[in-house]
């Protein structure tokens, strides 16, 4: 394949040392729990294979994906650690799942039988996790159905019940009632398994918000996603200074021109200049994941200052007003997410402008945007050895 001689104008860089700091924070909060790092959706847009390898260097040995494909891609990249498929899978996928030694989350009685049938005899007893529905209203065996599910013969012969889990719906809310109710229901489930004398090694409930807000949710395994990438979803006025956003998204000014008062920018002329306006054109658009809702709303950093997006974000280009910044030239860096000088734009800022959450902003960064990785440095400051 032809190798480009120059990096493209739009790219993302991911700071693996900041990732290590975020992992350290997870471990400080949940010192007795093992970590299952959630790397679904291309590691929330950060690059699943590279993030998983970096986490392996940080002694993380369990990974969570949403789909069988995501798990297979990690296996094909040579990742041999435990990979749990957290999302909804259907029996038609079970053969592929088992052939790649992925760990399923089973959330209905019939799935236990179907999965047991897909397991090759040589790989039994095959580890599985069971999900209990405690208030998310999504997937899971209902608590009153669990005793019967746990009695299924497959769980003593072909399968091995390695994990029991539930998922919190509201752990980032200031109101704790829903989460406390979920934790109570799950505790009743655990009491039942103990009364039956079942020893299930991995008990897991906590997503990032659970890890941060609910010590009682940490159990023997925690499932951090967004906090690994440096964000939390707690109310806006709560801060998490120990978390460091690890992704910077930058582009490069491709063109600068001046329009007169009354001149317009982009499709449908939604921006009309009220003064003589310097317009810079950025080679990034909604096909790269820079959402069209940022039209006339978003901001970008140029020369360490925030400047507004003007007109409609196009598929491949976005325009900004640089009239108030002196000395702006073609080739200058423009920061979409990240720090420049003393100014910073986070994925949470971008999310607020387009009325969503940082998760969606990060996941949306498209495949057209190459990711570069700033290496993991050990505490001594030396780059860590490659495996
Ligand atoms: C995505 C996901 C997580 C991670 O959630 P964050 O809020 O990103 O920490 C944890 N558990 C399950 C089941 C998930 O699907």
Could you give the topology of this structure?
Layout: E1 11-15, H1 16-29, E2 34-38, H2 40-44, H3 48-57, E3 62-65, H4 68-76, E4 82-85, H5 94-99, E5 103-106, H6 109-118, E6 126-131, H7 146-150, E7 159-165, H8 177-195, E8 202-204, H9 208-213, E9 221-222, E10 247-252, E11 255-259, E12 264-265, E13 271-272, E14 277-282, E15 299-302, E16 305-310, E17 318-321, E18 333-340, E19 343-345, H10 347-353, H11 358-364, E20 371-374
Parallel strand pairs: 1-20, 2-3, 2-9, 3-4, 4-5, 5-6, 6-7, 7-8
Antiparallel strand pairs: 1-10, 10-18, 11-14, 12-13, 14-17, 15-16, 16-17, 18-19
Helix pairs in contact: 10-11
Describe this protein's structure:
The chain is an alpha/beta fold and 387 residues long. The chain has two domains: 214 residues, Alpha-Beta Barrel (TIM Barrel), CATH 3.20.20.10; 110 residues, Beta Barrel (Lyase, Ornithine Decarboxylase, Chain A, domain 1), CATH 2.40.37.10. It has eleven helices and 20 strands. The protein has an eight-stranded parallel sheet with strand order 8-7-6-5-4-3-2-9. A five-stranded mixed sheet has the order 19-18-10-1-20. Helix 10 crosses helix 11. It is elongated, with a radius of gyration of 24 Å.
